[in-house]
Write a structure and sequence with these properties.
- The chain contains three helices and 16 strands.
- With 263 residues, it is mainly β.
- The protein has one domain (3-106, 123-261): Porin, CATH 2.40.160.210.
- The strands form two sheets. Strands 1, 2, 5, 6, 7, 8, 9, 10, 11, 12, 13, 14, 15 and 16 form a 14-stranded antiparallel sheet that branches. A two-stranded antiparallel sheet has the order 3-4.
- Helix 2 packs antiparallel against helix 3 (179-186).
Length: 263
């Protein structure tokens, strides 16, 4: 199914919106974080109608997102141009994730600058696949994306100068999904950059993710360049920075993640 088809399965249930965790968007025993984030935003949007564009979101991933997932989204504050919502996802075992979404309308301003230039990168058609795809890949969320390594290292490439990579990525089929909902899913589709320096395979778990939306996209069905760089890792935790550009070089979102690593 397309990404939009999966999101459309989110339905009202009492005072919340609910969905059975889609297995084809899983990562091990949980949904990958981007899908949980996207469903949380979609629940907010459906519960509160027309909203200003999403400007920032903060996520804490508490437990495995599996089984029947229920999303609540109370309004925290609404101003003249902005609105702030909480979001909580629970299943039968308890809290799965918590989030805050900050939406804000555009305002006239004398301040405008952009110090987020897209790195030079070959066209995606000239780059090799970043990970196994199609029949060569195991079942899970990864099979819903195409990826091409444009710069940096691959997973477990310890000789790489830094644990970072730039990857062209796109949905195989986004469908008619809301562009912001799709952005949240796309922006988290890569493994943590610290895995470039992993000496062996091992589990990871994203704990927190902050996303600031710099330019709400009109659609999200083309190639986008996602850059991730682990800036510090010690004691079983990695802190990384992330940026997403469209194929015209416009920055769409920047983010930070704290990741637990078990290697």
């Amino acid at each position: 199914m397309s990404f939009a088809d999966v999101v459309s399965a989110l339905v009202p249930e009492g005072e919340c919106f609910a969905i059975d965790a889609p297995e084809d968007w899983s990562q091990g025993r949980t949904l990958y974080g981007g899908m949980t984030a996207a469903l949380g935003y979609e629940a907010v949007k459906r519960a509160h109608g027309d909203l200003p564009p999403l400007r920032s979101a903060q996520f804490t991933f508490v437990g495995p997102a599996s089984g029947r997932l229920r999303f609540t989204s109370p309004l925290l504050r609404r101003g003249r141009s902005s609105a702030i919502f909480a979001s909580e996802c629970v299943n039968d075992d308890g809290v799965v994730a918590r989030a805050v979404f900050v939406c804000g309308g555009a305002r006239e301003s004398k301040i405008a600058h952009d110090y987020l230039p897209m790195p030079k990168a070959e066209a995606p058609e000239a780059c090799h696949s970043f990970r196994k795809e199609g029949a060569a890949a195991s079942r899970g969320f990864w099979n819903n994306f195409e990826t091409r390594l444009a710069a940096g290292g691959r997973i477990m490439e310890q000789s790489a100068p830094r644990p970072e990579f730039g990857v062209w990525t796109r949905f195989l089929d986004a469908g008619a999904a809301d562009p912001i909902t799709a952005l949240l899913a796309l922006a988290d589709c890569l493994p943590p950059a610290a895995m470039v320096h992993f000496p062996q395979p091992g589990p990871i778990s994203t704990m927190t993710w902050t996303v600031d939306v710099t330019a709400p996209p009109a659609k999200l069905d083309a190639w986008h360049l996602l850059w991730a760089s682990s800036e510090h890792a010690a004691h079983g935790y990695s802190m990384q920075a992330m940026t997403l550009w469209d194929n015209a070089g416009r920055p769409l979102a920047v983010g930070r993640q704290a990741v637990a690593i078990f290697v």
